[in-house]
Task: structure prediction
Amino acid sequence: MRKVAVVGCGGSGKSHLADELGRILDAPVTHLDAAFYDDEWNALPMDKFTDVQRELVAQPRWVIDGNYNSTLQVRLEACDTVVLMDVSTVAALYGIFSRQIRHGAGHKGNGVHNRIHWGVIEYVATYRRKMRPA
Result:
């Protein structure tokens, strides 16, 4: 394993697993939330976000965690391993709320980007039914 894409529902443990894999594989880890959002929660324009990912996947070794289905193909075409964090809806909801309690809201500089609002809760609650099949 030299190029690993970690995908799955919010709260499933993607960032934690990516950090562990990066340590074990001695590979740089990128958390896509950190690449997509700035400190004020402004999103990078999608074309620039795609370009950032193309630069990341051109490297000889990497672990990248995050979904962003609109740019997933960039990572899938370049990786040699995909890890799908397929946890239950209850476990994912527990994950987002327990992360909020452990880390608080905002950007933590370690891949943890917490911002719970109704859209996040709805996304996590419906992920297995709507997003996972895609």
Remarks:
- The chain is about 50% helix and 15% strand.
- The mean pLDDT is 87.
- The CA atoms of residues 46 and 70 lie 9 Å apart.
- The longest helix spans residues 89-103.
